[in-house]
Amino acid sequence: MKFNFSSQYFFLFLICFFLYGGYYAGLAFVISFLGDGFTSVYSVPLRLVCSLIMLYFIIKNIKNKINNNYYFFSVFAICFYIILTYAVDLFSQLSFFNKKIEYILYMIVYSLIPFIFFSFIDYKKIKDILVNAIISSGVVLSLMVLYLYKDLMLSGIGRISMLKYEGQDSFLSPLSMSYAASLTISMCFFKLIQINKFSNNLKYILFILISFVPYNLGASRGSVITLFLSLLLSIIFVAKRSVKIKILMIFPFVLAALIFFSIKMGSAVFVRFMSIGDSYQNQDTSVTNRLGQWNQAFTYIQDNSILGGHFLVEGVYPHNIFLEVGMGQGLFILCLFVLCVLFCFKELLIIAKKETDAAPLIVFIHGVFMGMFSGSISSSILLFSGMGLLVSVNRFYKGR
Question: Which of 173, 270, 291, 389 is deepest in the core (most CB within 10 A)?
Answer without folding.
Answer: 389
